Amino acid sequence: MKADDIFGGGDALYPAIAQNEATGEVLMLGYVNGEALRLTLQTGTAWFYSRSRRALWNKGETSGNTLLVDTVKVDCDGDALLMLCRPLGPTCHTGERSCFFREVTLA
Prior knowledge:
This protein is of the alpha+beta class and about 110 residues long. It has helices at about 5, 35-45, and strands at about 15-20, 25-30, 45-50, 55-60, 65-75, 80-85.
């Protein structure tokens, strides 16, 4: 399946979960458009769309903590992605391994 087959090449944003392929740990949630998905598939590194900056960004371009993408899967409705990755360093900008390090206490 090609990027255009999934999103039709539009500018709509879709959630993309990055998961450590070796451990199964969820690393982060980002958003992608058609161009970010195409760049991810072409380069083998995770590209996202920053909603605050309104621009594409390559994970690790500043920190060096790249996500190498081995597999991209689309959900059954075609509106979300799962990227199976090999992280090179911590994924979270705080230095944590995953962006999901804060636990909510159940009542």
